[in-house]
Amino acid sequence: MNPVPAAYAEFGQTLAFTERTMTAVLRNRLAQRDVQPETWYALKLVAVGSPHVARRSLVGDLEGSRGLDADSTRALLARLAGDGLIAGDNAIGLTEEGKALFESLREHVLGATVGLLGQFDLRDVETTVRILKAITRRTQEEAESAA
Questions:
Q1: 20 assigned to some structural domain
Q2: pTM of the entire predicted model
Q3: Closest C-alpha among 39, 55, 138 to residue 90
Q4: Which of the two ends of the chain, N or C, has the fewest CB atoms closer than 10 A to its terminal CB?
């Protein structure tokens, strides 16, 4: 049997520590603006699906995230709608106020990200992003084919 490369053995733990660190940075950054991470995540999902995202898709993504379930997702979306940040029934979009808040938060969050990732070679960061996306895509494909 061929020996397992050390990078393979370290990958999962390293990724977990990085995720924990990046989550702490994000939470700290959002706390400066008195915004909950779930709010940021929901606004980001709607903005990425712009101009509208299917409610079913949005709910599925939110319920699949850490810290949210069916009840808390329903409450989050109701709160965002009540605050005038999102609108729509089957297709949800950001309101003008929601767009403004999202862009403001995006710039605020990206400031920390740029400060951190700017210390590394851009090509290395791009490679890391490409590999992580490929891992996610392949894992999803394998899960779908197994189902």
A1: yes
A2: 0.84
A3: 55
A4: N
73 lies in some domain: yes
Query: Which of 101, 107, 106, 112 has the alpha carbon at shortest distance from 24?
Result: 112
For residue 33, being part of any structural domain is answered with yes
**3 state SS for the chain:** CCCCCHHHHHHHHHHHHHHHHHHHHHHHHHHCCCCCHHHHHHHHHHHHCCCCEEHHHHHHHHHCCCCCCHHHHHHHHHHHHHCCCEECCCEEEECHHHHHHHHHHHHHHHHHHHHHHCCCCHHHHHHHHHHHHHHHHHHHHHHHHHC
Q: What is the pLDDT of residues 37-62, one digit of tens each?
A: 999 999 999 999 888 999 999 999 99
What are 87's two structure tokens?
A: 């609108």
CATH code, domain carrying 53: 1.10.10.10
What domain count does the chain have? 1
For the segment 11-21, the average pLDDT, to the nearest whole number, is 94
- Give φ, ψ of 63 to 5 degrees: -65, -25
Residues 66/131, Cβ–Cβ less than 8 Å: no
| 88 Ramachandran zone, left/alpha/beta (phi>0; psi -120 to 50) | left
